[in-house]
């Protein structure tokens, strides 16, 4: 999961500079691409993903994830990456069917 998240964000960050008007579209693209790639794994999981895009302007961003589930079968990964103009945090939850 983490590798798919990193690849998706890396490809995205290579070609964009922060633009507030496009952030909703970009978030949708990141989430759609991530979920499509995860579904190609053909694993018995339901996936949930969240994405945060934030302009780099000196303001800190703090986020946290908490879950209560079966630690033997379910999982979570969080990928944080950025470029010179924005930061992206992608969280992926995998819930065994």
TrEMBL record:
Q: Where on the tree of life does the source sit, at the highest rank?
A: Eukaryota
GO cellular component entries = cytoplasm; cytoplasmic dynein complex
Entries under Pfam families matching the protein: Tctex-1 (PF03645)
GO annotation terms (biological process): microtubule-based movement
Name the InterPro entries for this protein. Tctex-1-like, Tctex-1-like_sf
User: Molecular function (GO) terms listed?
Assistant: dynein intermediate chain binding
Q: Which family does it belong to?
A: Belongs to the dynein light chain Tctex-type family.
Record protein name field: Dynein light chain
Which source organism does the UniProt entry give?
Piliocolobus tephrosceles
């Amino acid at each position: 999961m983490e590798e798919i998240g990193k690849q998706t964000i890396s490809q995205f960050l290579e070609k964009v500079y922060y633009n507030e008007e496009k952030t909703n579209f970009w978030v949708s693209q990141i989430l759609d691409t991530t979920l499509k790639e995860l579904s190609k794994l053909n694993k018995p999981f339901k996936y949930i993903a969240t994405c945060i895009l934030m302009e780099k302007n000196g303001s800190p961003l703090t986020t946290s994830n908490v879950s209560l589930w079966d630690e033997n079968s379910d999982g979570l990964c969080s990928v944080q990456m950025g470029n010179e103009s924005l930061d992206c945090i992608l969280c992926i939850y995998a819930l065994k069917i």
